[in-house]
Amino acid sequence: MRNARWRCLLAVVHYCTVGPMCLVAMLLVASLSAQNEPLRVIAFGAHPDDCDLGAGGVAAKYAALGHKVKFVSLTNGDAGHQTQGGEELAKRRRSEAHEAGRRIGIEYEVLDNHDGQLMPTLEVREQVIRKIRQWRADVVIAPRPNDYHPDHRYTGVLVQDASYMVIVPNLVKDVPALPRNPVFLYYSDHFKRPQPFRADIVVSIDDVFEKKIDMLDAHVSQFYEWLPWTVGKLDQVPKDVVERKKWLTEQPNAARKSLPEWHDALEKRYGAQAFGIQHVEAFEITEYGRQPSEEEIRKLFPFFPDKGAHP
Ligand SMILES: [Zn+2]
After folding, report:
1. How far apart are CA 101 and CA 62, in angstroms?
2. Which residues contact 220 (CB under 8 A, 6 or more apart)?
3. Residue 36 confidence (pLDDT)
4. Is the bond into 169 cis (omega within 30 degrees of 0)?
5. Cα–Cα distance between 159 and 151 in angstroms, integer?
6. What is the CA(47)–ligand 1 centre distance, in A?
7. How far is the CA of 45 from the centre of ligand 1 (A)?
8. Residues 26-61: pLDDT tens digits?
9. How many Å lie between the centroid of ligand 1 and the Cα of residue 116?
10. 8 A C-beta contact, residue 110 and residue 77
């Protein structure tokens, strides 16, 4: 009994002297390691090259800082070519996507759903929920559900339908639910109805523009064959590999110059530097994920000059 009391007293003394200090040290270590944890970003596209166009530049920037980025194509791209198709094309596009990811240091996964036939089914929604949870995403990027291409539209719907569900433990029980909802973003687009894209976050990609072009250049079947063919410009693509890459940098979809209506969002975070920025990627914050404060936006996009550092 006496020994037990002594042990109890010693435990109290131990807690009051060493305990609080240890606790402070542990909290400090935990908060420092949380600060050093890499950000985890996952982007969805309908086809193997969609994510690259919308977020290849920011992905290269994240990767260069040691953050983790994954691109996921919901279809295997087996319809996007004028002379090839089926399994042969799917194989080619999968290897182009892997090469594109390798060139900027990110992961690239191509799912086996058929191109041109994507539907917003429960099965594909669950595939999306799994990918977001497995990646333990802080940020999720996807197209808006308004677009000329049904696969793009349904990719937007599928990711929209997965937001919130990623935190519901009773669904898709084979992968643990996320403890909190990620921030969900849309890529920029030019569609006006029912409402136009709103640029909430605009990032300069001038410093990685060549890396982005290098990434796009890996999708030979698309940027040098299929897409020029769809607009009757196949004969304008140079045959030489160096010349065609130069030609690619001049294509508006690849170049992504900043638009006048995006300037306010650019200036908000770059100050006067905004006037010198050429190539950008812009994003809209969706209403369905976590709503980040300005402070959190700056943490999730660690690319902007320090507040107050710009005039
Ligand atoms: Zn596409």
Report:
1. 13
2. 96
3. 77
4. no
5. 12
6. 5
7. 7
8. 544 444 445 679 999 999 999 999 999 999 999 999
9. 9
10. yes
Check: CB of residue 46 under 8 Å from CB of residue 154: yes
Q: In whole angstroms, give the CA distance from residue 282 to residue 297.
A: 13
- Entry pTM: 0.89
> Which amino acid appears at position 95 of this protein?
S
Instruction: Report CA(254)–ligand 1 centroid distance (Å).
Output: 13
Instruction: State the distance from the centre of ligand 1 to the C-alpha of 164, rounded, in angstroms.
Output: 25
| Sign of the CA dihedral running 146, 43, 32, 301 | negative
Distance CA 103, CA 215 (A): 6
176 with 170: CB under 8 angstroms? no
User: 115 CA to middle of ligand 1, Å?
Assistant: 9
Compute, in angstroms, the gap from residue 71 CA to the centroid of ligand 1: 13
**Can you name the residues that pair with 140 across neighbouring β-strands?**
42, 184
- Please state the φ and ψ torsions of residue 198, each to the nearest 5 degrees: -115, 120
Using DSSP bridges, classify how beta strands 201-204 and 183-187 pair: parallel, antiparallel or unpaired: unpaired
**Percentage of residues in the chain with pLDDT exceeding 70?**
87
Neighbours of 104 (CB within 10 A): 24
Q: Tokens 């086996």, residue?
A: 112
CB neighbours (10 Å) of residue 150? Answer: 14
End-to-end CA distance of the chain: 71
The partner residues of 187 in beta bridges, in order of sequence, read: 283
Cα 39 to ligand 1 centroid, rounded to whole Å: 26
Strand bridging mode 201-204 / 107-113: unpaired
Joined together, the tokens standing for residue 272 give: 């006067």
